[in-house]
Amino acid sequence: MTRADAPVTPPAVLTIAGSDSGGGAGIQADLKTIEAGGGFGTSAITSVTAQNTTGVQGQHLLPIEEIAAQIESVRSDFDLGAVKTGMLATSEVVDLVVEHAPELQNLVVDPVMVAASGDRLLDEDAEDAYERLFAEATLVTPNADEAEVLTGRDVEDPEAAERAGRDIVEMGADAALVKGGHITGEEVVDTLVTAPEEAGGVTSFRHDRIDTAATHGSGCTLSSAIATRLAHGDDLSGAVSAGIDLLARAVRYHHDVGEGPGAVHHMVELRNEASRTETVEAVERIVSACVDLDVSPLVPEVGMTVAGATAYAETPDDAAAVEGRITRTRDGVRPNRGVRYGVSGTVGRFLLAAREHDPAVRFAVNCRLNDDVRAALGELAGSVSTYDRADRPAGAETEATTWGVGQAFEASPETPVAVVDNGEVGVEASATLLGADADTLVGHIETVLDAIDA
């Protein structure tokens, strides 16, 4: 039979940038990120580079008329919700974009000057031309090094980043996001400065620094993510916040490819979202196994929680668990409600803390701790680590469970299969079993139960 079509209408986003043969940055990164964000990516390639994770080996600028033809071709056919620029290379290309800018909405300018490898991607005479483009921009997204070149300021802390952002706004931009990845510190602070007529304020976005050099494509990914959110109709602050959250996850779960540091994971949020159903189903299988095995000897007084983290989990909303926990009855055990996200409580926090040390850990279950269970843990094939809450330093800023997990992992020669919390006054002692997948965790539960019954 003939089926009716069912078209979708995503917002179109144009990227004007260079091509990265290594796939991690430039046009390739932009199109991946736009698609992952629910946009339809179009492109105008300014330059072709021979590039990989180790550096830039060659660069060829396309004739200006060919770049213009691409822009005009896209504009004539697509209703563009946003445009972002990346590697423009020369003042002539910058001026070409300036010519078209009055007809472009939501223009995000990423002033690409130097690749992450340190290779220069912009002629020095093009730096001055950027000021003309900034006057047309909705948002300019320099890193600290680029902000220094553009403003002549030393950008070494968030306060200096704010001053540089104000300078860029004074050049005519509606807003400037000065990225803090190149500024030293345990936190990355990205500073958004908006023009007085827009909001007249400064917003700081803070997140933990990721211990990695795999940031290839980070600027392209962030600016493309922001442009895509603007095309969807988000306000500027919301679009920037969403883009920064995506980039933090994309850097942590970067692609380990090539001989260099690697590249950011442009599709990470899409992949994480895709894993949510699979994660819930895995938690449900573990819960069913607990009911079938009758894990009554392992259920704590507060109840048992089975938690599962999505593949790229970062927050408690990425952890699924039984709402209301598993409790003992006269006929065995039963879950109080179904499996949901955002209800994992202490076990979810425990699981996310464990993933800071080994992201392969996906599932966890808390068990009561008595002499029988403590002895049974010795039958597990793997390390069992212990921490004492009494050892936590007075005034420690880290939450107790997170601190304890850190102590347990540091004390273990390998990723532990179980972590024992000896408790304290008002906190029940417990053992938490860990697994990379549902079958592994069920196997740990069976091993402990069999040892108790033996």
Characterise the protein shown here:
The protein has 454 residues and is α/β, with parallel strands linked by helices. The chain starts with 11 loop residues before the first strand and ends with a helix. The protein has helices at 26-36, 64-77, 91-100, 126-134, 144-151, 158-170, 218-231, 236-252, 268-293, 345-355, 371-376, 400-411, 438-453; strands spanning 12-20, 40-52, 55-61, 80-85, 107-109, 139-140, 175-178, 187-194, 202-208, 306-309, 319-322, 326-329, 332-335, 339-341, 363-368, 384-387, 418-421, 430-435. The chain is elongated and about 80 Å long. It has 13 helices and 18 strands. The longest helix has 26 residues, at 268-293. It has a seven-stranded mixed β-sheet. The model has no long low-confidence stretch (mean pLDDT 92). It has two domains: 12-266, UDP-N-acetylmuramoyl-L-alanine:D-glutamate ligase (3-Layer(aba) Sandwich); 274-453, L-fuculose-1-phosphate Aldolase.
Can you tell me the CATH topology of the largest domain? UDP-N-acetylmuramoyl-L-alanine:D-glutamate ligase
Structural class: alpha/beta
Helix content: 25-40%
CATH class bucket of the largest domain: Alpha Beta
Strand adjacency order, main sheet: 14-11-10-15-18-17-16
**Could you tell me how far the N terminus lies from the C terminus, measured between alpha carbons in angstroms?**
63 Å
- Total count of domains: 2
Give me the Rg, rounded.
26 Å
Alpha plus pi helix count: 13
Describe the sheet with the most strands.
7 strands, mixed
